[in-house]
Design brief:
The protein is of the alpha+beta class. The strands form five sheets. A six-stranded antiparallel β-barrel has the order 3-4-7-6-5-8. Helix 7 (about 310-330) crosses helix 8. It folds into two domains: about 15-25 and about 40-80 and about 205-495; about 85-200, Beta Barrel (Thrombin, subunit H), CATH 2.40.10.170. The protein has eleven helices and 23 strands.
Length: about 500
C-alpha cells in the first residue's frame, strides 16, 4: 500500500527575524478587502500543530546522566578482559614440544596490542583450540610472542590448524613441581629473562572525547515585541499568548535543545579537515568536532544489519546472534532499545510469533521494578535468554524532518536503532585519579564555580531590563558538551 505525504506544508523554519510582514498574521492585505475581513475575521483562534509534538530530545535524558567537567577533554580508562586468551598460530605441530605464536588478542585486534605483553607465563596451563581440536598443554618456555607448549595427553599437536590466527589459546591455571620457586621452575630447561614469573598487571585502555560549543539566538525588535496577533500561540512547554514572538522564541529554544541531542548522536571528530579547522579558527588538523554515539559504536562497539522484518524466524535467529555477541562482551543483562518504527514492528512480530515468549518475565529493574512506570515512559519490556530489553520508538529515527528523512535518502547508511546497556560501570577517571561508577552513556558539560555551560541563556538589548542601546530583544543560548560512550563493546548499532 502506497502512502503519499502532504507536501504543501510550511515545514521549514524561516531564517528571517520575527515579526515581519512576510510571516506575521495579517488580514488587511487581501485584494478583496471586506468589512468582515478587516473588522470581524472568522478565525480559528488556536494555532494548529500539524506536525504533532515536534521535539526529539529526551533520549539521552532517559538512558544517561549529565556531569560537569572542567577541562578541554574528558579522559577515561576501561579495564581489559580479566582472563588471558589470545589468537595465534600453531607453528610446530609434529613434535612433542609444540609452538604457539601469538598474533592478536582474543578479539582479533593487532592495533594497540603488544604481542610480547600477552600475559602467558611459563608453567601456565593453556588450552589450545583449532579445527575442532582442543589440547591441554603446559607452557614451558615463553619468549616474547612465542610460547613453547607440551601436551598432557597427546604425543604432539598434530591436527591443529597452522594458519595465521587460526588457533586460540586460553590460560586455565598453572602447575608446579614441589618446592620449586617462581624463578626456577624447570631445571632441565632453564628459564630465560623473558620467562620470569612477573605478576600480571591490570590492563587499561584509555579513551577521550572533547566538548564542542553550540550556539543559537533569537532576536525581535522592540516594536514587534509589543505587537499583538490574532492567533493564540502555544509553546512546547505549554505556555500560550497572543504575542507572536513568544512562539518564535520558544521554537528557537526547542530546536536548540534538540540540536544538543542530535549533535551528540551524529558528531564525528575531524580528521585532516583543514577547511573546517580554518573556518573555526583552529590549527590545521587539530581534530575539531566531537565523537557522537553512532560513530563511537561504529568505532568501538558492535554493528548489525539483522532484525529487518524479513520474517519472524529469520529475525529471531538474527536477534539471538546479537545475544551471542553480548555474551562475548560484558553480558550486561538489562538493555534499552531505541529503534525506528519498522524495526519496532519487526520485533513485535517476532515476539508475537513466539506466543509472547518472554512476556511477564521481565524484571523492569531499570524502572524500579515497575511495569507501569516503563509503560508510562513509552517502553515495552521482553526477556530473551538471560537478557531483559526495554524497547521504545525513537522519534528522531522516524521523523521525516530529522533522521527519518536522511534514512530514506540513504538507505544503505540508514540508522535503524541502538541498544544501550542500562546501569553503570566502573572506570578509572584519569583526571580524578580514582575509580568511578558512571552510566555507560552520559553527557559531560563544561562547568566550574564561575560559569555553568550546560545550557546558558541570557538576554541583551533594550526590551525589558535594558542592557544595551539596541532597540531589540536578543535571546542567546549556548552549551559546551560532549558524550561519553563508556564500554562501547556492550552497545549495538542497528543499520
Amino acid at each position: 500500500m502506497a502512502i503519499t505525504a502532504g507536501s504543501n506544508l510550511n515545514s521549514v523554519p524561516t531564517t528571517q527575524k520575527q515579526t515581519l510582514s512576510t510571516n506575521y498574521l495579517d488580514f488587511t492585505g487581501s485584494t478583496d478587502v471586506t468589512w468582515a475581513q478587516q473588522y470581524l475575521p472568522d478565525l480559528m483562534e488556536k494555532e494548529a500543530e500539524v506536525f504533532g509534538k515536534r521535539t526529539i530530545s529526551g533520549f539521552l535524558n532517559q538512558v544517561g546522566a549529565e556531569e560537569a567537567m572542567t577541562s578541554d577533554q574528558v579522559v577515561w580508562s576501561e579495564q581489559a578482559r580479566l582472563h588471558i586468551s589470545v589468537k595465534g598460530t600453531v607453528v610446530t605441530a609434529g613434535s612433542t614440544n609444540g609452538t604457539f605464536e601469538v598474533t592478536a588478542d582474543i578479539d582479533g585486534n593487532t592495533t594497540g596490542f603488544t604481542l610480547a605483553d600477552h600475559g602467558v607465563r611459563a608453567n601456565d596451563l593453556v588450552l589450545i583450540a583449532s579445527a575442532g581440536i582442543t589440547t591441554l598443554c603446559l607452557a614451558t618456555d615463553v619468549d616474547t610472542a612465542t610460547i613453547q607448549v607440551e601436551p598432557y595427553d597427546k604425543a604432539d599437536l598434530t591436527g591443529h590448524a597452522t594458519g595465521s590466527g587460526a588457533s586460540t589459546l586460553l590460560v586455565v591455571g598453572s602447575e608446579y613441581a614441589k618446592g620449586v620457586a617462581y624463578s626456577a621452575v624447570d631445571t632441565a630447561n632453564p628459564l630465560t629473562a623473558a620467562d620470569k614469573h612477573e605478576a600480571n598487571q591490570p590492563s587499561f585502555k584509555s579513551f577521550s572525547n572533547k566538548p564542542i560549543i553550540m550556539k543559537d539566538y533569537y532576536e525581535v525588535s522592540g516594536s514587534d515585541a509589543s505587537r499583538i496577533g490574532w492567533v493564540e500561540v502555544s509553546t512546547e512547554e505549554g505556555q500560550s499568548g497572543y504575542l507572536w514572538y513568544l512562539k518564535a522564541e520558544a521554537d528557537t529554544r526547542a530546536r536548540f535543545t534538540d540540536y544538543l541531542e542530535m549533535a551528540m548522536l551524529e558528531s564525528v571528530v575531524g580528521s585532516n579537515s583543514t577547511v573546517v579547522d580554518a573556518s573555526l579558527g583552529a590549527a590545521a588538523d587539530s581534530g575539531v568536532g566531537t565523537q557522537g554515539l553512532f560513530d563511537a559504536i561504529t568505532d568501538r562497539g558492535n554493528v548489525t544489519s539483522g532484525v529487518t522484518g524479513v520474517n519472524a524466524a529469520t529475525d529471531l535467529a538474527e536477534f539471538d546472534a546479537i545475544l551471542a555477541e553480548f555474551d562475548n562482551q560484558g553480558a550486561i543483562e538489562e538493555n534499552m532499545m531505541f529503534v525506528n518504527r519498522a524495526t519496532s514492528l519487526a520485533i513485535d512480530d517476532m515476539l508475537a510469533s513466539m506466543n509472547s515468549y518472554g512476556a511477564g518475565g521481565t524484571s523492569y529493574g531499570v524502572f524500579d521494578n515497575s511495569e507501569d512506570m516503563a509503560l508510562n515512559l513509552g517502553f515495552s519490556g521482553f526477556r530473551r535468554g538471560s537478557y531483559d530489553f526495554y524497547k521504545s520508538d525513537m522519534r528522531y529515527l522516524n521523523d521525516k524532518a530529522t533522521r527519518g528523512g536522511i534514512n530514506a535518502a540513504a538507505t544503505t547508511a540508514a540508522i535503524r536503532g541502538v541498544i544501550v546497556p542500562a546501569g553503570v560501570s566502573s572506570v578509572y577517571d584519569e583526571m580524578l585519579g580514582k575509580n568511578m561508577k558512571r552510566p555507560f552513556l552520559h553527557v559531560r558539560y563544561r562547568a566550574s564555580q564561575t560559569d555553568d555551560r550546560r545550557l546558558k541563556t541570557w538576554v541583551t538589548g533594550s526590551v525589558g531590563a535594558a542592557t544595551s542601546a539596541l532597540d531589540a530583544m536578543s535571546i542567546h543560548m549556548l552549551s559546551e558538551r560532549c558524550l561519553v560512550t563508556q564500554g562501547a563493546n556492550n552497545f549495538m548499532l542497528l543499520k
